[in-house]
Specification:
about 550 residues, alpha+beta, Formiminotransferase-cyclodeaminase, Chain B, domain 1, Alpha-Beta Plaits, Four Helix Bundle (Hemerythrin (Met), subunit A), four-stranded antiparallel β-sheet, 17 helices, 13 strands
Amino acid sequence: MKLMECVPNFSEGRDKGILDAIAQSIRAVKNVVLLDVDPGADTNRTVFTMAGEPEAVVEAAFQAIKTAAELIDMRQHKGAHPRMGATDVCPFIPISDMTMEECAEYARKLGKRVGEELSIPVYLYENAASKPEWQNLAVVRSGEYEALPEKAKDPYWKPDFGPHAFNAKSGATAISAREFLIAYNINLNTRDKKKAHDIALSIRESGKAARDENGKMIRDKDGNKVMIPGIFSHCKAVGWYIDEYNRAQISINLTNYKITPPYAVLDKVRELASEMGIQVTGSELVGLLPKAALIEAGKHYLNKMNESTGIPEKMIMETAIQSMGLAELAPFDLDKKVIEYAIARKDSLSDLTVKGFCDLLSTDAPAPGGGSVAALCLAMSGALSAMVSNLTIGKKGYENVQEKALELAPQAQDIKERAIHCIDVDTDAFYSMMDAMRLPKKTEEEIAHRNAEIEKSTQGAINAPLSTLRISHEALLLAKEVAKIGNINALSDAGVAALTALAAAKAANFNVLINMAGVTDENYKTQTLAAASELIAKCCALAEEIEQDVATRLL
């Protein structure tokens, strides 16, 4: 599922009424969760953090910027933090299943709307920048709000969107796409701040000043300090003493965890600290982080132990928590610390008990229905393939297939997770179609809008089971591999994995077909029916092959 974060900074940190109004404008948008509001009275600035589906996040960001423009007057603003507008900066950050370029495109989309509808000059920076020098926010914001009247006269400062004019009330806004920043602290068993800072100098990108054998700082011919580069890129670090914890910490900002992940820094710090006779006692993640960062860490440590990574994602993350000592200073609650869990819906069908799901399914409620059941069957298929793979790993007599089993187990878990997501997607698609049916149809304009929404939602109600059908084909291919190399004592389970995947495929196809009657786009109908027919044929052939193989070997 595509998820995007947005962290707009507003030039107001003292007036609770204004901040509450901005917060309400965000909360009013569906499929967005406001995760945090962090006001600063001295800086007169507040950082909002929200996350959700990309289109919804863009809408929420626009509504927040609009509210800020209405309520904040930059002519009266004073604060310690650099700023140039009522909404000073508004970066988009990819969380899951998104590329940086997609975020940059959403930044451009928001910038265009802010410029056109609110008449606010918009400058794009970092990964959305239209000029290389504008990648640096400090350059874009140079001179701050007070410099805007002169910039409005300079062709170089023509904004990316909006009028090339001074907006006295709202100033200008910088919009961007950037990587997620992880604030990460490593705890040491010393109270010596200098020792912590020495390690920080070694790991941070900017490094440390070079010194000669007498400890004197080395300078170049122009008198500038000669720097020794640090070990990690995208890493800022400093050593400090925390009175509350009675220990020294290395405080770290990782500006691109995909290049420099926390676990890599931790492993190196453990090595450097050990050389100094210091022990790392644990570490601390400040704020929230994407699920992928914690899963990557968990898999790193599982691989070091030569254990399967094809286990449920929360078990992988628990491995990361234990291996990194993340719960040393305070409890580490995944539901509060992981963005995807923090914004997860509270009415998810996939969170119901088996009995609760079946009970709801058995009522006259219009959903869940066959599409969600198809996805549930698919999830169980993936889970069975993962189980058989894990029952093969480390078992005597299966030494020759260990590498393959270690490869198949996480693939099966991935199928399981995607299928579980499909359970709710299918029901949501049905309700979207019902909402479209209820739209007014009194005027020609209303009728046209209603028809367009019905077509869009009907295609959505087809695309949901079509996704289930596609994943079912993957599940059958996987079940075939698992049955071939898996623990013979679990051969019947591999066979059931194939049968449940086939049931999912056929059930999903029924849901494609029943909704197709409502489609008016003949090109979409032709292409989709052809794709579904091809997939079903492949699924049936695979399932028959696996069933015959398993049945023969069970006798």
